[in-house]
Automatic annotation (TrEMBL):
<dbReference type="InterPro" id="IPR006311">
    <property type="entry name" value="TAT_signal"/>
</dbReference>
<dbReference type="InterPro" id="IPR051010">
    <property type="entry name" value="BCAA_transport"/>
</dbReference>
<dbReference type="InterPro" id="IPR028082">
    <property type="entry name" value="Peripla_BP_I"/>
</dbReference>
<keyword id="KW-0732">Signal</keyword>
<feature type="domain" description="Leucine-binding protein">
    <location>
        <begin position="56"/>
        <end position="427"/>
    </location>
</feature>
<dbReference type="InterPro" id="IPR028081">
    <property type="entry name" value="Leu-bd"/>
</dbReference>
<dbReference type="Pfam" id="PF13458">
    <property type="entry name" value="Peripla_BP_6"/>
</dbReference>
<protein>
    <submittedName>
        <fullName>ABC transporter substrate-binding protein</fullName>
    </submittedName>
</protein>
Amino acid sequence: MERTNYTRRRMLAGLGAAGVAGLAGCSGETNDGDGTATATATEGGGATVNASASGTVSIGVLQPVSGDLSYYGQQALWGFYQGLNYKADDEFTPPAETGTYTATVGDVDYELIVRDTQLSADTAQTLATDLVSSEDVDMLFGCTSSASANRVITTVSKQSGVPTMIGPAASADVTSNAETCAPNVFRASENTAMDARSGGQYVAENSDVSRVYLFGADYSFGRAVVNNYRSVLEANGVEIVGQRFVPQGYSEWEGLLDNAESAGAEGIVAGFTVSTLPQLFTTFLNGGYDFTVFGGFATQITTNIVGQTLQRVLGEPLTADALAEANFGPFTTRYHWNQYDNEINNAFVDSYTSAYGVVPDLFSSGTFTASSAIVQAVEAGGSTEGADIQSELRGMVVADTPKGADGYEFQTYNNQARSAMTIADVVPNDEENWGAAIKPSEPVATVDMSNTTIPGDSDEMGCDL
C-alpha cells in the first residue's frame, strides 16, 4: 500500500500533550539561552526532555495483521500507535495494516515500517532480517507469538545488535532465559510470570485457600504459569497437592478434576488459553466441585468464548450472583480498560475507543508503554541513534503509561519492565464496546510492581545483564 504520513507538531517548550504526567519527577527547568527548555529528572523516574532531539527513528514493526488471530496484532499495533498519539497534539491512528506510517513528535519523525508475521516464526525471522539488512531500521518492535519473538531475538537482534522492543509476546523465558536475554532486547509488555506471581500472591494473602492443584498447558505458556504459581504459593505456605500438564485442546477433564478434589484441593490454577478453557470450565461448572478456579483474564476473543460457556451452563442473562456462586475467580489481569483510574488511562481509553470502536484490551497498555518509552528515550538522550535509545531505555522509569505516571520500570538485570497488576472478579458485561458476556470487575486488589516480576536472584532468572 502507499506510504502514509501522519504529521504532527507540538511546542516542546510547553511540553504539550505530555501534560502533568510528562513532568512527573522533574526537579526543575532551565533555559538553554536559545529559548528551548530542558527538563531534568530526579532519581526514580519522570520525563527527561532534551529539545535538541531531531531527525528520524526508523522502527521495523512485526505483528500478525492477517489470519484467524489478526486481532492480536491489531490490538498490539493500536496500543503502540496510541503511545505515540499521546505524545503530540494531532491524531495518529493509522490502520493495522502493512505499510509505512510516520508520526511526528516534536522535531522527530517516528517511521513505522509495519510487516505481517502471519503468526509464523519463520516469517518473522525473514521479515526482521530484511528490515535490518535492507531497510536499515534503527529499532525493531514485535512480536505477538513468543516463538516468533525468540526466533527474531536469537537470529536477528543478537546477531545485528539492533535494539529490539519485544511485545506483546508473553512467555516469561523471553526475558529470563540466557539464550534470549540481551542488552539490546527490552520488553515493556507484561508476561506470564507476572500473571502467575500476582495471582499466587493474591491467593496466598487474601483467600482461605491453603491447598492448590496446578494445571497447565504443556508448552512454555502453561509451564511458566504453573512454575511461577508454585514458587509464590509455596513461599507463602500454600501446599501444592498436585500438578498436571496437558496438551492444548485437552477435553477429558472429569477424571483430572476428580483427582484434584480427591487430593484435597481447595483451589485449582488453570494455565490455559482459548483452545482448552471452554472444555475445562464446562466440566468444572457442571461437576459441582467445591474448589475455586484461579487464573488470568485474557483478551476479548478468549473472554467472549468463556462467556458463552458460562451462559450455556449458568443460563442467560448472566447475573453477578450466579457468577459469584460458581467459585469462578477472581482472576489476574495484566491490563484492562477499567482497572486504572488516572488521567493518562482515561485519555487513552477515550482515544482508543473513538479510533477503533473497542475498549483497550489485555495487550494495550504494554504496547502503549513500549512506544512511550522509545519517545522518552529519544527526548532524554537528544538522539535518534539506536545505540543511544538503547542506553536511555536501560533502567528507565516510563513517565507516561496507562497504569499511571511512572507506571513501568525497566529492570536492569533483564530489561523487562515491571508494573502493577490487578485482581478482579468475573462480572456480567455492561460495556457496549467490549464484545463478551463477561468482563473484569473493578479491581479487588492491586499487586505492586515490586512483587510482580521474577526477582534477579531467583533460581528462575537466567538473565544477568
